[in-house]
Amino acid sequence: MQKVCLGVVQELARDEQRVVFVGSDLRPGTMLSFQENFPDRFFMEGIMEMNVVGMAAGMAMEGLVPYVNTIASFLVRRAYEMLAAQICPLQLPVRLIGNGAGLIFTPLGLSHVFLDDIAILRALPNMTVVVPADVDEARRLMMQTLDWPGPIYLRMSKGKSPIVSREGDPCRIGQAILLREGTEVAIIATGIMVHRAMEAANALQRYGIGCAILNVHTIKPLDEEAILTLAAKVSHLVTLEEHSLIGGLGSAVAELLSTQAAYPLPLLVRLGTPDCFHDGYGSQDEMLAKLGLDVEGIIRSIREAVTRAKGPI
Amino acid sequence: MEPVSHSPVLDERSRYLRRLIIRALAGAGRGHPGSALSLVEILRVLYDHALHYRADDPFHPDRDRLLLSKGHGCLALYAILADKGFFPATQLDQFCSMEGILGGLPERGRIPGVEASAGSLGHGLSLGVGMALAARIKQKKHRVVVILGDGEINEGSIWEAAMSAAKYRLDRLLGLLDYNKFQSWGPSSKIQNLEPLADKWRSFGWQVHEVDGHDVAALKQVLAPLPLTEGRPTFVICHTVKGKGFPFAEHVAAWHHKSNIGPEMVSMMEKALE
C-alpha cells in the first residue's frame, strides 16, 4: 500500500507545485523517481520524527502541502506534540502516511506494533483519520488529499489484503460505504478488517444471520448518518477493527449511539484488541487469530451475541 | 567575548519597553517576567534595525519570519509588537484575560505579528527549518529568525533541527539564543550544563557569534547585516541577564514565573525603572 500511496504523491506533485515529500530514513530506493523528477521538493530526513513533522509544519505554514512518510508508531507518537500544538490548531495541510500500524509489525514486537493510533489521533480537533480497506481504496482516498482541509493521518496496511472496495461505489473522505445489505446484524468495519467482515458475513448467512457491512474508511470525521441509519435497522451492531477497544472505531460508534441514536438501541458488540500490551510474536494473521479477530473468531463472536439475545438458533 | 553580559545601563527606549511589560504583568497579575526581561534588547534591535515587516500586513509574503520559540518570553514580544503598532497597547492590560488576544504563551492566528505558536519548548527551530526550505523552493529571499532559550535547548528536537539546518546549508536561517543562564528551577549550569556551547553549534555546522544581549550597539552590529555567512546557518549566542532591569529579579530563579503580582510588586518594578 505504501507503493500505491507514494505513487499518488508523485502524481499529485506533477500537477501541483505545493506538493513536497518528506521521508524519515525509508527503505533503500523509496521515492527515488520523485527525487529525480522533483529534486527541490524531495526531503529524505534522518531518524528524527519530531523534527521531520515540525519541518513539515513550517512548510505547510508557508503554503506547501507536505506528505510525510515513515513507520506509523514513530511518526505519530514521537511527533504527537507537534500535531497537538502546531498542526491541528492551525489546520495545517500536513499529510501523515503511516507504515505498519496495527499488528503488521507483530514479528518485531512492542516497539512497532501500534494499536492506539486511531484513539490518540481522533482525540485531536481538526485531525482527519483515514484507514483504507485495500490498495484500490487507498488510491482513491489519496487522490482526494491535496485540497482536503487540515491534517490527515492515513493508516496504511501491508497491501496484500484482498480487494473488497468497488470501483462503482462513491468513495469520498468522510463517507462510509455500504458494501452489503443485511437486516439482522450490521458490521461496521475499517481497514483490513473489512474483507474479514465480508468473509464472516458470507459464513453467517449459512447460519441464517443476515449481515450488512459498512466500510468506515474514515474514522474522523465519522459518517454519523450512515451509522445511525444502519443502527435503526438491525438488532446487533458489531464494530470490527485492528485497534484497541479503547478509543478506536468501536468507541467512536459507542459514543455516537449513546448521544444521538433513536431508541431502542441495537445491541452493540465491539471487536478489537484488548487493553493489554502486545504479547509474543508471530505473524499479523496469527496474532489476529489469537485475539479472536480472524474470520472464525468474528463468526464465533457474532453467533454468540445473536444466540445470547435470542436463545439457541 | 566573555560568557556574561556586562549589563549596560538601560536607555530610555529599553526602559519604555519594560514599562509595557509591567503593564501586562499588572493586568494579568501573572506572567514570566524574568524570561521576557532578558530578551528585550534582542527583540528591540531586531524590530528597530534588522527585520523587514509590516505592522499593517503581518502576513505579508516578503516579511522576515521571527519565531519566538521560547514562548514564555512572550511579554517582551508583545511589548515590541504593541510598540510597532501590530495591535493596540491597551491589549497589554488584558494579558491572559478572556477579553484579550494576548495569552500567557503566544499563538499564531490570534495575535497579529506572532509567526508561530510556542509554549511547548523545542518546536521553533524545526518550524524555522521548514519555513526556510519553503522559501528556498519558492525562491524567496526573506530570512527566518528563531529565538531560543537556554533551557529550551535541552530539548532533543532542537539538535535534530540543528542538524537539518546545516544539512541544507540554510544561510537565511538565524538562531538567536537568549542565554540568561537560568531556567525554571535554577542555574542552567546545575540543571543541564550546556557548555562548551559555541563549540557544540560550530560542530553541528553553524556559524557562531557571541554578543552581549543587552548591548544595543553590539547587537545592532551583529544583527543588521543578516544573513551573516553564505552556505551555513548562523547561531548568535546572546549573553543576557535573567530579570534584566529589575535588580531584585536579576539572576533570581523565582522571577522566571510570577503569579499573584499585586500593586506593591508592580510599583516596585516601576520604581526600578526610574
Question: What does the model show?
Answer:
Chain A is 38% helix and 20% strand. Chain A is an alpha/beta fold. Chain A has two domains: 2-155, Thiamin diphosphate (ThDP)-binding fold, Pyr/PP domains (Rossmann fold, 3-Layer(aba) Sandwich); 177-310, Rossmann fold (3-Layer(aba) Sandwich), CATH 3.40.50. In chain A, the strands form two sheets. In chain A, strands 2-1-3-4-6-5-10 form a seven-stranded mixed β-sheet, sandwiched between helices. A five-stranded mixed β-sheet of chain A has the order 7-9-8-11-12, with helices on both faces. In chain A, helix 10 (249-260) links the parallel strand 11 (236-244) and strand 12 (267-273). Chain A is globular, with a radius of gyration of 19 Å. The termini of chain A are far apart. Chain B has a five-stranded parallel β-sheet, with helices on both faces. Chain B is built from ten helices and five strands, in the order αααβααβαβααβαβα. Chain B has a single domain (12-272), classed as Rossmann fold (3-Layer(aba) Sandwich). With 274 residues, chain B is an alpha/beta fold. In chain B, helix 9 links the parallel strand 4 (207-212) and strand 5. In chain B, helix 1 packs across helix 4, helix 1 (12-28) packs antiparallel against helix 10 and helix 5 (124-137) runs parallel beside helix 6. Chain B has helices at residues 12-28, 33-37, 40-50, 74-83, 124-137, 156-167, 188-191, 197-203, 216-223, 263-272; strands spanning 65-68, 144-149, 173-179, 207-212, 234-239. Chain B starts with 11 loop residues before the first helix and ends with a helix. Chain A binds chain B through residues 20, 40-41, 43, 45-46, 48, 50-51, 53-64, 66, 81-82, 85-86, 89-90, and chain B through 107-109, 116-117, 119-120, 122-123, 125-138, 156-157, 160-161, 163-164.
